[in-house]
Amino acid sequence: MSDVTPFGDRLEAVFAAYGRLCVGIDPHASLLDQWGLPDSAEGLREFGLRTIDAAAGRVGIVKPQVAFFERHGAAGYAALERVLAEARDAGLIVIADVKRGDIGSSVEAYGQAWLTPGSSLEADAMTISAYQGLGSIAGVLEAAESTGKGAFVLAATSNPEAAAIQRAVLQQSSRAGSTVAQAVTSGVVAWNQGRADAATRGLGSVGVVLGATIDLRSSGIDLDVDPPRPGLPVLAPGFGHQGAELRDLRAIFGSLAAGVIVSESRSILGAGPDGLAEAITRRVGDVGATSV
Ligand SMILES: O=c1ccn([C@@H]2O[C@H](COP(=O)(O)O)[C@@H](O)[C@H]2O)c(=O)[nH]1
């Protein structure tokens, strides 16, 4: 019996303690300017550390958007390493939004970078793409399981232009007739159900990314059946700045609502460094008052 706590169990504990809000760490140039910080690696580090200070003890999950740090090359990555380490030391669950995907051997290396305990980029979970086939990410998911890490697989993303690909219907494979989004979601559900301890688990350790801004039923996602067992973690960007409303959460996600992580970046970060803690506290309250 492994003494590693599964990521899904950690997520459940955070839901119980802090609720399901995730604060995105997205140092847009415009936000850096608003915060009085330079658009440099130092500015990004400061932005990230101030966000963690405001988040710690108020919310349970943060999601650094790696793209903004990558803009500054090696120095940006050094800033990100510090932000990741501080966030994890503060007890926050850290989801690295990196959206990696490739052939299996290469995507495994991405998994090693972001999910290996002791790695300089260690996070608790990463976003990952299965558009090179669900089998291509199996190695990462296995490695993640052995170390209590998690992954969120892109299924139906919040940007409207994704629909043309994600709603395409598969012609081949055991999931022929499903949309791409539904095939990914079903594949992740099946992965969680295939774990040895599946029957005893409340939430699986692998989830999907489903945007809150889109009509998930039109993407082929079945929201009207009983929730999967174990429950499916759903990383849900699209609330706040992109326009989705918390009051619609249950209608948007149907039977998957219980696993939803409400992810917001700009709508919270726009409060500025002085208003951030208050904005997080308020939003945690809003999310807590939202029925799933
Ligand atoms: O489908 C997706 C997947 C990821 N994202 C990321 O989430 C945040 C959203 O930021 P907001 O400021 O709350 O709009 C950002 O990092 C995206 O890259 C997404 O929006 N949609």
Automatic annotation (TrEMBL):
Record-linked SMART domains: OMPdecase
Keywords: Decarboxylase, Lyase, Pyrimidine biosynthesis
Domain Orotidine 5'-phosphate decarboxylase positions: 20-280
Catalytic activity: orotidine 5'-phosphate + H(+) = UMP + CO2
Enzyme Commission designation: 4.1.1.23
Pathway in which the depicted protein is active: Pyrimidine metabolism; UMP biosynthesis via de novo pathway; UMP from orotate: step 2/2
Any one GO MF annotation of this record: orotidine-5'-phosphate decarboxylase activity
Listed GO biological process terms: 'de novo' pyrimidine nucleobase biosynthetic process; 'de novo' UMP biosynthetic process
Stored Gene3D superfamilies: Aldolase class I
Pfam hit, one: OMPdecase
SUPFAM superfamilies documented for this protein: Ribulose-phoshate binding barrel (SSF51366)
Similarity comment text for this entry: Belongs to the OMP decarboxylase family. Type 2 subfamily.
Full protein name: Orotidine-5'-phosphate decarboxylase
